[in-house]
Design goal:
Four copies of one chain form a homotetramer.
Chain A lengths: L1 E4 L5 H13 L3 E6 L4 E6 L8 H4 L4 E5 L19 E3 L2 E3 L5 E5 L6 H14 L3 E3 L17 H14 L2 E5 L6 H7 L2 E4 L7 H8 L5 E4 L6 H13 L5 E5 L17 H8 L4 E3 L1 H5 L2 H13 L4 E5 L17 H17 L10 H7 L1
Parallel strand pairs in A: 7-8, 7-14, 8-9, 9-10, 10-11, 11-12, 12-13, 13-14
Antiparallel strand pairs in A: 1-3, 1-4, 2-3, 5-6
Helix pairs in contact in A: 3-4, 3-11, 6-7, 10-11, 11-12
């Protein structure tokens, strides 16, 4: 913490601040300039509220100098975290794509979509069984039945499963079926849920809240990691701004920022990030070009009749084209996508 | 819903849209202008996603014309909701003040503060027993022990109790001790919690999320009311904007907007709305001047040593002065505050 | 400036930073902690870009410790600036109200409105002659003819004149007619205009830009003051946020923040701050309750037929009632409004 | 315009609204549903303020159905605008890059940088001669001398010139030297400047204001086009949001949205969009991947000693690598970049 005193602060005020900091177990260094005094307080004091000093008399400003997160940051863990689930590796130089419908609706629906996304090169099947809906009058998901359908379809096509868990009591249930547990944007600061996920040993996909700063997102990852679960995947999915042509404003620059501050893998969700089908592909490509470790995308074979988020779901053919475009883009920055297609064909299709 | 077709939309595209709307059970009215066709779709279809039509070919724009909330809105409930708890009336012409520490810390602490806020004219004692903290390394509250201390102190001074419930499983526990159940800003869209609160019969204080629109806040109230619990108090507590001198930007204009759209009582939380002690009083006065039905304010007798939010807590003397100022302001707009002090004295103090 | 080095910064990196700072004429103080090194750089270096140091190797963060404004800040000018124009005093303990139509439309219109706002207690007549309009197809103002009408009406009723100047070339023209020169929100960072206003000797009413931080607003005031014109009135008029029920979100808390950081008078514009007539009065009252030195309000006797901003203009009767409410509120915080009405009558009307 | 009446609106209120709309020369269509009445008002009425109807009694909501811009929109101009300047084509399938220093500082500086950006494949040289600076104490540009140096350097290397014009009086001067006239973000709503640019016949590069919606940006383009100058290039350069790790939040999704709504070319400015050197390349690549027609990038051979924006300027080697990455990305989406390098070499370098 650095405490900047006012130009006209009295010596007594300065001494009081120093005494308080010493009392809080900080190492204190004082720099007295011609017009200003600065007090450096050094020590590992996570959880201290800088406003405690800020309200003292004679204080102009208090500046925090320690990242409030430790496990999620690069300082003590400079190398990238690589998460391995079966034969899928997240966080390395491969761009991993998770795809599927917003909600699991029926066995046939999830099977059709699983086949389509597998064919196009996805590695993980997404699908919601418990849906957080803004309106109490909207479809709320199939529950456990949906999870079972999702797992069976994924197994049929050799895909992993990611699905959202909305409540700490549902963690054991969702764990039975999913390989990756997703925390939705609205729950990013549901601390009871985060703590429960800290106690399990399954990778967690943590979506950035729509009003969450990058730092707060890392603090939510810290909650999970503080419990001993180090396999957290960060996900940018759009923030709320004054521009409302798109549902949210996808903060593509958060991808390289997260990667600078943290060693955790970072993926992007252009479906929720934009909320409009014809903006999903451009933003998916942008995320890969900016260096994302992966994508999570809504795909539906019959979006007109989808029970939720149809308007932002890609058709399978659109998804396939997008995958091929992203493969080329990933090569431009020294990454790769394993689509099991000859690169020449991919280039031609682009 | 009103569907505006593009100027060059074909008759076939128009017919497809009409067919789809009829299929969704809307009454359809078509207006054909020289250059544009507009299709009005009338019917009570809550939960329909307007983007379903928006992505159809030939469609320029879809405009929603029904409020998505019904129970929380004024349309079917024009008169103000009045909530009576013992002898306290919230939602009428009295400005009701809830005050107390951020967290319950000890028996002595809560007793001292309860006495002080009672003396100044507060009607409800606030205090957290379960604290949602951004950092996993911060104080997390005393739990049930804290709730018991809070209740006992309140009873000693004839105050009601409001306290936050963070998880649906804790609803029965908090209900035992509190008269009003508070939903924090971070949980405003924790739908499992909202549904659980819909099933109980105690007033709920619902804080606006820091990125929640006014409409989304009313939809969260609707979740609770859809379960049969109609006693919801809305609370403005600051939204996230680009300005970060203050922790949040308190949206004072939301107070009259909520009151226009909804019949529910609206209070304001200037402590979290600003995050800085010397801004609490101006914003509390502003909220009353804008017509708020009440205030919820953090007060601490020893904020330097508070375990949380000390820097935004008022000293008892500041709180007392504020109450007297608010009493005069409430009179300016035909409201009142019952401070059990002769108005003359209050005026002189102002 | 305080430079925080990374935990693993090398001694060589630290030395390079120190050399660079010395080279920039800073006094340098080094604090070496167990894990972190902090470098304090003290000196009055306005205009230095902290990112210059931030991009150096081994640097974790650079924190600015000097306010970038000097003339507008309280540090070297602790007492409030009081602006006297004829018999009107702005910045003292009287709440001064400026009122009038958005645009001057005709002699009769401005005369009718001037009479009405004078009767209610306004001290300054507002009215636009050059209108900045988002659409090129909207009414753009009467120009000099409008200014003349405005001045004549003001003189007839003993009012001062405030009017907007949009371009530096128009400064001499507007100066001929107005007592206060207004800079609109869209021009808050039109630096050529600000410099031109720095060279004149008339008070300037500077509106906060809709995306301007409090600091940037003070820097724009600094531009004017750096030219020698110290009579600047700051005006909060709403910022752009994700909430769009209201046109802008009025940042009432900016009023006490401006007053803490700066000695300049601060007024509020609830007409543009909300954009909706029935929200103007609550927000005007809120601004006074928060401590504003004045208000600027749009009033029109026939808003249905106003050429601009009719929907946010108050009717004269609404304005009169508001003035009486504000008078009571100003008393609550030790201020006053001179309505030339017996206070008893005002109280009864409230 | 579509007027939605309240459910309990009286027939008299409905008739008044209809009369008013007829009076405003709209074609009126009425749809009476079981519970709600909707009034469609059709006609080309740009510049009408919908709030005029919104404040009438019985009105629930007014929805605008016409884009407020006409020349900038796709409705009457479906095909893309292609701007040809000498042998450079902007708006077609080639991604055009503009690059150079923030400010022109000296003949040697601009020559060195012009050579470097030309070699890497840029087509246009950027450089500021008049600088809008937030602080009055910062470097303000070399003025005409700077423009001359810029032109000479560009001519030496066969580059076009883009430079900012900040004031309408400077339009003739900047026109003498520049091929493209740039309007900065802070001037996006400086209507006098926009009108002046409407009267000239040179392409204008219009930067989106940092609080400007997509629609407002198009309205500013409309101002220029309404004067007869149809060659406007839109530029996304970041908007202001609550996230302040980056200077602005670059709204990459605005690129495809602008392209859907308007026929004008759209480029991106990742230098100002992020404000940090190591975020420029990821965001430049993201913009190309999202479909931008071009980029404008700050490059400096000695950014440590740049007089402005050094920390966000790329080194020439970084710029060269970025160009090669962008070339591959542009191919992924059926576009191209003419770097005059064999594609094989480019691929290897990527």
């Amino acid at each position: 913490m650095v405490v900047v005193m006012k130009e006209n602060a009295t010596e007594e005020q300065i001494q009081k601040v120093i005494a308080r900091l010493v009392n809080m177990n900080f190492d204190v260094h004082r720099s007295t300039g011609v017009s200003k005094t600065i007090i450096g307080a050094i020590g590992d004091k996570r959880g201290v509220d800088p406003r405690t000093i800020e309200v003292m008399e004679g204080v102009y400003e208090v500046l925090r100098i320690t990242e409030p997160y430790k496990l999620a940051g690069r300082t003590f863990h400079p190398e990238d975290t690589i998460i391995r689930i079966k034969d899928v590796v997240i966080g390395g130089d491969e761009v991993v794509v998770m795809a599927g419908p917003c909600s699991v609706e029926s066995e046939e629906q999830i099977d059709t979509i699983a086949a389509a996304v597998k064919r196009a090169g996805a590695k993980v099947l997404r699908g919601g069984a418990f849906k957080p809906r803004t309106s109490p009058y909207s479809f709320q998901g199939l529950g456990e039945k949906g999870l079972r359908m999702l797992r069976e379809a994924a197994d049929r096509y050799g895909l992993l499963v990611v699905s959202e868990v909305m409540d700490k009591n549902k963690v054991p249930l969702v764990m039975e079926y999913a390989d990756i547990l997703q925390v939705g944007a609205r729950n990013m600061q549901n601390y009871d849920l985060l703590k429960a996920l800290g106690r399990v040993r399954k990778p967690v996909l943590l979506k950035r809240g729509m009003a969450a700063t990058i730092e707060e997102t890392l603090l939510s990852a810290e909650y999970i990691m503080a419990g001993g679960n180090y396999e957290v995947i960060l996900c940018e999915r759009g923030i709320r701004t004054f521009e409302n042509y798109t549902r949210n404003t996808m903060d593509i620059s958060a991808i390289p920022v997260f990667q600078k501050l943290s060693h955790l893998p970072v993926i992007a969700d252009p479906s929720h990030g934009t909320g409009i089908r014809d903006k999903v592909a451009p933003m998916a490509r942008a995320a890969v070009a900016a260096g994302a470790h992966g994508l999570i995308i809504e795909v539906h074979h019959d979006p007109e009749n989808a029970l939720s988020d149809g308007p932002q779901s890609l058709y399978p053919a659109q998804f396939e084209k997008l995958m091929q475009e992203c493969q080329i883009i990933s090569q431009a920055i020294g990454k790769k996508m394993d689509l099991r297609l000859p690169p020449a064909k991919a280039l031609a299709a682009g």
